From TrEMBL, chain A:
<dbReference type="InterPro" id="IPR002178">
    <property type="entry name" value="PTS_EIIA_type-2_dom"/>
</dbReference>
<dbReference type="GO" id="GO:0030295">
    <property type="term" value="F:protein kinase activator activity"/>
</dbReference>
<dbReference type="InterPro" id="IPR051541">
    <property type="entry name" value="PTS_SugarTrans_NitroReg"/>
</dbReference>
<protein>
    <submittedName>
        <fullName>PTS system, nitrogen regulatory IIA component</fullName>
    </submittedName>
</protein>
<feature type="domain" description="PTS EIIA type-2">
    <location>
        <begin position="2"/>
        <end position="145"/>
    </location>
</feature>
<dbReference type="Pfam" id="PF00359">
    <property type="entry name" value="PTS_EIIA_2"/>
</dbReference>
<dbReference type="InterPro" id="IPR016152">
    <property type="entry name" value="PTrfase/Anion_transptr"/>
</dbReference>
TrEMBL record, chain B:
<dbReference type="InterPro" id="IPR050864">
    <property type="entry name" value="Bacterial_PTS_Sugar_Transport"/>
</dbReference>
<keyword id="KW-0598">Phosphotransferase system</keyword>
<dbReference type="GO" id="GO:0090563">
    <property type="term" value="F:protein-phosphocysteine-sugar phosphotransferase activity"/>
</dbReference>
<feature type="domain" description="PTS EIIB type-2">
    <location>
        <begin position="1"/>
        <end position="99"/>
    </location>
</feature>
<keyword id="KW-0418">Kinase</keyword>
<dbReference type="GO" id="GO:0005886">
    <property type="term" value="C:plasma membrane"/>
</dbReference>
<dbReference type="GO" id="GO:0022877">
    <property type="term" value="F:protein-N(PI)-phosphohistidine-fructose phosphotransferase system transporter activity"/>
</dbReference>
<dbReference type="InterPro" id="IPR003501">
    <property type="entry name" value="PTS_EIIB_2/3"/>
</dbReference>
<dbReference type="GO" id="GO:0009401">
    <property type="term" value="P:phosphoenolpyruvate-dependent sugar phosphotransferase system"/>
</dbReference>
Amino acid sequence: MNDNSFYQVYFNCKLETKEEVHNFISNIVCQNNSSIKEEIVNQLIRREEAGSTLIAEHVMLPHIESDHVKKSQIIFIRLAKPIVTWDYQIEDICLLIVLLLKRNESEEIKKKISLFTRTLADEEYLNRLLNSKERYNFEQEIITI
Amino acid sequence: MNIVGIAACTVGIAHTYIAQEKLENAAKKAGHEIAIETQGTIGTENELTAEQIADAHVVILAIDVKISNRERFEGKRIIEVPTEVAVKSPNKLIEKVEKIFEQSNQEREGK
């Protein structure tokens, strides 16, 4: 995978709960301001309340559009160990693909992200990501647009 | 069967486009014609034509939000589901659409 900051990979991430994942994402958006971090976490929670972001077995797609996102990004979080209980309905999460969309993002970037999300409809692709045990292989599998 | 539909989710960047892909793939696999319009953060893409709507036997609305121009489907057989249904179980959804279509045809023939 090219060194392209639009795509970020966190491999073998030691996150054990939904809350830890949300905090991790909020830290990516903003490291210093606790009220912004809280807002990001609340946005992620509200999105999940509106409808599950589980897109395939073991794979979740948390996503938000926010004024606090300075640069739109696609972030892959491959967990070191599955999160056995995400909530009362969802279990055994191994991979999170996070979409961070900057408010009033350009048409070009939005189109790029929408083309990327279409690729996630392919379950074989997701399975290849899930089955990649090494960081290098995982990054090689990622389809960049 | 001719199917048209709309996919639209809350943020308009994720489920909208996965739902479109999955519905199109599932319907084509089952031997149907399908066209799905997306109403996402980019705006409307793959906009349905009046002809496509007129020829459609069923309309699938995979939506989490209010959509634009819903009145185009007035008088059509509409199946409305949240986007997550189209994302998680597209094949089952198409099977359900087939059953509804068959049932309503039988009812019509029985009249």
